[in-house]
Design a protein that fits this description.
Layout: E1 2-3, H1 6-17, E2 20-23, H2 25-38, H3 43-51, E3 55-58, E4 61-64, E5 67-68, H4 70-73, H5 76-85, H6 89-101, E6 108-111, H7 115-118, E7 125-128, H8 131-144, H9 151-167, E8 180-183, H10 189-201
Parallel strand pairs: 1-7, 2-6, 7-8
Antiparallel strand pairs: 3-4, 4-5
Helix pairs in contact: 1-10, 2-5, 3-6, 8-9
The structure holds 2'-deoxycytidine-5'-monophosphate.
2'-deoxycytidine-5'-monophosphate (DC) is lined by residues 24-25, 28-29, 79, 82-83, 86, 112-114, 171.
Length: 204
């Protein structure tokens, strides 16, 4: 699953199916945090750090080396830092095995731009929404976490990130040719999850 509001939708779909979940962005965010804290730089060093990330995700909570680091890992700053380490091919390769190992029975709902390529599956979904709607959702998400959020700043950041995500050289955001595209601008997470579950239940 790729696209806007994917985290909430992933949670609902996984719960309904009784499947495990993977928020693949957390891997890049956690690596960014480790690299900042330990002063790690250079592709090889970052890839080595990626290969020994000690991460555990329980619902929305993220434990890094056994410590709950959810708030910092989910912060906008770490999102920005993650987008930089995510551009390093060695880092992406080092995190691949971790992602594949998460696919255990009874099944996995994974989100992130490259999940449709990493996992061999018939069930791929691309969630779309306007930048304005995504900014509004992000403000609501921050507010729920008791963090301050300025709509205009977040909107500008989303537009800047979209531009760099679609145009960057390594792993640019591409819509998988076999993904179902779902416009979520005017529907909520529950309704989006229902569409996905309906597609999932259909014979191919
Ligand atoms: O989805 P997110 O905001 O948690 O992602 C954080 C950054 O990591 C973002 O710049 C996209 C990048 N990312 C990636 O390159 N590949 C993934 N599978 C997931 C996230």
């Amino acid at each position: 699953m790729t696209g806007s509001g994917k985290g909430t939708v992933r949670g609902i779909v996984a719960k309904k199916l009784g499947f495990n979940q993977l928020d693949s962005g957390v891997l890049y965010r956690a690596l960014a945090l480790v690299s900042i804290r330990k002063g790690i730089s250079g592709s090889q060093n970052l890839a080595a750090a990626a290969a020994c990330l000690h991460l555990k995700m329980v619902d929305h909570t993220v434990f890094l080396d056994g410590v709950d680091e959810t708030v910092i890992i989910r912060s906008d700053e770490m999102g920005k830092a993650a987008s930089i380490v995510a551009q390093i091919p060695e880092v992406r390769a080092a995190l691949r095995g971790f992602q594949l190992s998460m696919r255990t029975l009874p099944g996995l709902v994974a989100d992130g731009r490259d999940q449709g390529e990493i996992f061999d599956t018939r069930h791929r979904f691309f969630l779309e929404a306007s930048a304005e709607i995504r900014a509004k959702r992000r403000v609501e998400q921050f507010t729920r976490m008791d963090l301050s959020a300025d709509y205009e700043t977040i909107l500008a950041e989303i537009n800047r990130r979209d531009e760099s995500d679609f145009t960057r050289k390594v792993s640019p955001l591409k819509i998988h040719p076999r993904a179902w595209r779902i416009d979520t601008s005017n529907i909520n997470a529950e309704e989006t999850a229902e569409i996905i579950l309906a597609h999932y239940g259909k014979p191919f």
